[in-house]
From TrEMBL:
Protein name stated in the entry: Post-GPI attachment to proteins factor 6
Membrane-spanning ranges: 535-553, 622-640, 646-665, 681-702, 708-727
Native source organism of the sequence: Larimichthys crocea (Large yellow croaker)
Keywords, sorted A to Z: Cell membrane, Membrane, Signal, Transmembrane, Transmembrane helix
Superkingdom assignment: Eukaryota
Alphabetical list of Pfam families matching this protein: DUF3522
Lineage per the UniProt record: Eukaryota, Metazoa, Chordata, Craniata, Vertebrata
Family membership: Belongs to the TMEM8 family.
GO cellular component terms attached to this protein's record: plasma membrane
Signal peptide: 1-20
Annotated membrane topology: Multi-pass membrane protein
Length: 774
């Protein structure tokens, strides 16, 4: 898959020897490159070019090189390319300063500005980067709303990121309670790692027995101790050591993870030897609530049936819910004195792409006490980071009345739970932040939305808190925590559409807004279009197609029945295509949008094709053959590339070439300009050509998203008007090889038949048409 997308991965092994008491350290360098991608002006997240890099464990330095190259040689001025970098999930950006939906929490990521004229590049270095996936997003400045026709030359810029990594392959490991002798120099820090097991509540790393290489300072450490990695949004814990030693402590360290330890020397040209040791403490291990030793998959299957029946509104399940809640309470009672935290098992269900739902096994109600916290665990896979993590916490006040001084405090945190909850304790771990909420009698429901969450295990801790030391009679309450991953925030609302995007094999979703609405969830109405403006745009774009009615009438009166049917087809589908193409709520679709668009584009180009061929005045047999053959080719090209430039220019140029050829042939044969009448040129051909030229200029150069509804309506009117001017006059009665052979149909609805003798029709002589004005 990587090779199919032209991904290049180069591996260069460089061996470096560093003097240390514990042996020699080997470093390797890995180089990865992504193919160049064309940048777009930012209008929504789909205009962003997203790339994903993986940084392995024990990486010492990561170096990105970003290159931007201009695609054309003509002067485009200077543009600024914005580059966003984030660890663990795609960057959440807001270049246009729009408003985020309510209860949507996000933190800004690192952004770089790269000015570009013809070719520019910049580098970004990061020491001790966090291992895992890193995401790089790039885009041009905000879209100015100009509609660029596909195929015309425009200013294009191509973005290519590259990453080089230097990592140690034999990093020493700190064991619990075991001293390790290390040496640190200014240019060669000591790099170590330690494993933090699950349920660890605290961690400490101590440095002792410092000794300078030359022995001048004796026991002066002059070291810098760092715990953790650099993730741009969160940095390591740093301690400056002095004297004979120092230590760094972490409360709530990340569970089941490798932690980096870096010790640097502050002394110039001096090597410091020291001993380092780590210790962790397990405060308490949670006891499971809800699943007994004899439980099996049948209970999980029963819970799934329970969920489906609840969605269907089965009244029998309500009784089961109450019984399940009472069972959970009964299970909690004997554990109140023996456990420090209760872990509720959670069912993980992948519903669809970027759609994951978590449900407590014993039902939606979760019991919470004031003595010890309740813990729920939500593992989030990598493929779910492209969506939105939603938490909806609801207080169940059916049987219990919660006082005004009591509330249920909740903390949603990644990597490690916060097991001590109160109003003064922040919802934050040692290296990462959390998201705290609470519900009470006055606010029984709260919501949190996290776009593009990190791929890790998320923990939700719940506990009942009171202002006094005793909560009184209310020591056990029930809440309903709903945690799920959705593609977009509330499906982008009324004025937005949730679209699934892809960067190679990685899938993510974003909202594309319409009718002037903006924001991450299309909830910012600062530039929204009013309903009156939406209705006006719909009326103009649809009723402007009625300007084809004069062209249809003129074509019928001049006996161009085939051409009139093409104009009727174009008018019909263009009207309903634009009625369905509107961005707001004033929309009407009589069939699928794609079918309407295809018929509109096909009819528009065929109208131009048949009109120019009709002006050529060729014999009917050749004309209708070209009609059919050209329409088939146009239909094929529409299927291949509907908005391609040559889909319009190709038929137009071919038809003009045929028309000019026939006109020149007739002019040479008659030795007279064709058409011969100056009135035809002044009153018909020149005005029709001007209408067509003005319409094409408006269509190509003047249309923007702001003026589209009236400039495109004017394009409809001009095209229909030029057809009225350019259609040739009615031909004189003469026998042709066309569809009228053998009979004629006059305006008084009479018909006549010419006699046939021995299989031949008696003919009448007729003069050549001189293309005069009648």
């Amino acid at each position: 898959m990587a090779f199919s997308f032209l991904r290049a991965l180069l591996l260069v092994v460089l061996t470096a020897r560093a003097s240390a008491d514990d042996g020699q350290v080997t470093f390797v360098s890995e180089l990865s490159s992504k193919p160049a991608q064309k940048l777009s002006k930012y209008g929504w997240y789909g205009n962003v070019r997203l790339q994903r890099f993986n940084i392995p464990e024990d990486s010492a330095v990561a170096r990105w090189m970003f290159s931007v190259t201009k695609g054309h040689n003509f002067n485009c001025g200077q543009h600024n390319v914005t580059i966003h970098i984030r660890w663990g999930a795609p960057p959440v950006i807001n270049p246009i300063g729009s408003t985020f939906p309510n209860s949507t929490l996000w933190s800004p990521c690192l952004s770089l500005i790269l000015p570009v004229t013809s070719h520019s590049s910049t580098t970004f270095n990061l020491s001790d980067p966090a291992p895992g996936d890193w995401y790089v997003a790039a885009h041009l400045p905000e879209d100015d709303g100009r509609i660029e026709q596909k195929g015309f030359p425009s200013c294009s810029y191509f973005f290519q990121p590259q990453l080089s990594i230097r990592r140690a392959v034999d990093t020493p490991t700190l064991q619990q309670g075991t001293f390790l002798q290390q040496t640190a120099a200014p240019d060669q820090p000591a790099r170590l790692k330690l494993y933090v097991p699950e349920f660890a509540s605290s961690l400490s790393v101590s440095v002792a027995n410092c000794l300078s290489g030359d022995g001048v300072d004796g026991g002066n450490c002059s070291l810098v101790l760092r715990l953790g990695s650099v993730s741009l949004q969160h940095g390591p814990v740093t301690v400056n050591c002095s004297g004979t030693g120092c230590s760094a402590s972490l409360s709530n360290p990340p569970w089941d993870a490798w932690l980096r330890v870096v010790v640097e020397s502050n002394q110039d040209n001096r090597t410091v030897t020291f001993s380092v040791v780590s210790n962790y403490t397990v405060g308490c291990k949670p006891k499971s609530v809800g699943l007994r030793a004899d439980d099996d998959l049948n209970k999980l299957r029963g819970n799934s049936s329970y969920i489906n029946s609840t969605l269907a509104g089965n009244s029998t399940v309500v009784t089961d819910t109450v019984a399940s809640s009472k069972e959970s309470v009964s299970l909690l009672t004997p554990l109140l004195a023996s456990a420090c935290v209760w872990s509720i098992p959670v069912l993980h269900e992948e519903v669809d792409v970027l759609s994951v739902r978590f449900t407590p096994v014993n039902g939606p109600n979760v019991s919470v006490t004031d003595t010890n916290p309740t813990l729920l665990t939500y593992p989030l896979p990598t493929q779910a980071t492209g969506g939105t993590l939603n938490l909806q916490l609801t207080l169940n006040t059916t049987n219990i009345t919660l006082g005004n001084s009591s509330s249920v405090v909740a903390c949603l945190s990644p990597w490690v739970p916060v097991l001590e909850l109160n109003h003064s304790q922040p919802c934050r771990t040692a290296l990462f932040g959390g998201y705290g909420v609470h519900v009470n009698a006055s606010v029984p429901k709260t919501v949190i939305r996290l776009p593009f969450p990190h791929s890790t295990t998320w923990y939700l801790t719940l506990q009942l808190t009171c202002n006094g030391s005793d909560c009184g009679n209310t020591s056990l309450v029930s809440v309903v925590p709903e945690v799920f991953v959705s593609a977009c925030v509330e499906d982008c609302g009324t004025y937005g559409e949730c679209r699934l995007l892809r960067s190679y094999s990685y899938l993510y979703a974003a909202c594309v807004c319409k009718a002037g609405w903006n924001g991450w969830g299309c909830t910012d109405d600062s530039t929204a279009q009013s309903y009156r403006r939406q209705l006006t745009a719909t009326m103009l774009l649809t009723f402007s197609n009625l300007s084809f009615l004069p062209a249809i009438v003129v074509a019928i009166r001049r006996w161009y029945i085939t051409e009139a049917s093409v104009y009727l087809f174009t008018m019909f589908f263009s009207t309903f295509y634009h009625a369905c193409d509107q961005p707001g709520i004033a929309v009407m679709c009589i069939m699928e949008y794609d079918a309407l668009q295809y018929c509109d584009f096909l009819g528009s180009i065929c109208s131009i094709w048949v009109t120019i061929l009709c002006m050529a005045r060729i014999r009917d047999t050749f004309k209708y053959t070209l009609f059919m053959f050209g329409t088939l080719l146009i239909a094929m090209s529409m299927q291949l590339d509907r908005k391609g430039l040559w889909n319009l220019l190709g038929p137009v140029l071919c038809a003009i070439l045929i028309m000019v050829t026939t006109w020149v042939y007739r002019g040479v044969r008659r030795r007279h300009c064709y058409p011969p009448s100056w009135k035809r040129w002044v009153f018909y051909l020149i005005p029709g050509a001007l209408c067509a030229l003005i319409g094409v200029c408006l269509y190509i150069f003047a249309e923007t998203e702001g003026n589209y509804y009236y400039t495109h309506s004017l394009w409809h009117i001009l095209v229909a008007t030029c057809v009225v001017f350019l259609l040739p006059p009615k031909e004189k009665e003469r026998e042709t090889e066309g569809w009228s052979r053998g009979w004629s149909w006059s305006w008084n609805w009479s018909w006549s038949w010419r006699p046939r003798v021995c299989g031949y029709t008696l003919c009448q002589s007729s003069k050549d048409e001189l293309y005069t004005v009648t």
